[in-house]
Amino acid sequence: MGSPTSRRWDGAPETEFDRKFFALRESGYRGPIDQNGNAVTTGPAADILRHLAEQRGDTIDW
Predict the structure, then answer these.
(1) Interatomic CA distance for residues 28 and 4, integer angstroms
(2) Distance CA 30, CA 53 (A)
(3) pLDDT of 4 strictly over 80
(4) How far apart are the C-alpha atoms of 50 and 31, rounded to whole Å?
(5) Under a CB-based contact definition with an 8 Å cutoff, are residues 4 and 14 in contact?
(6) Can you give the pLDDT at residue 18?
(7) Helix or strand or coil: residue 33?
(8) Cα dihedral angle (16, 14, 49, 41), rounded to 10 degrees?
(9) Which of 5, 7, 22, 25 has the least C-beta neighbours within 10 A?
(10) How many CA atoms lie within 13 A of 16 on its CB side?
């Protein structure tokens, strides 16, 4: 079974991606995250997601 300190849903040991992902989410970041676990705040994909979030009425702070 996984580590007792793992934040993964399956309890498996956290990877570098997992640590970055959870750090971003726990700090309040709600925007897109790339395949390496980094925040994505610019570029076409971020623009599309920002537009969709605004249409839903979400607060966009990323």
Answers:
(1) 24
(2) 10
(3) no
(4) 8
(5) no
(6) 95
(7) strand
(8) -30
(9) 5
(10) 4
At 12, list the tokens.
């498996």
Q: Tell me how crowded residue 43 is: count the other CB atoms within 10 A of its CB.
A: 10
| Structure token pair of residue 28 | 């309040």
Q: Where are the domains of the chain?
A: 16-56
Write down the pLDDT at residue 3. Answer: 53
Dump pLDDT digits (tens) for 10-54: 999 999 999 999 999 999 998 899 999 999 999 998 999 999 999
Using an 8 Å Cβ cutoff, are 36 and 17 in contact? yes
Q: Say how far apart CA 33 and CA 54 lie, in whole Å.
A: 18
Tell which residue, 37, 35, 27, 36, has the closest CA to residue 62: 27
- Name all contacts of 52-59 with Cβ < 8 Å and 24+ positions apart: 58/30
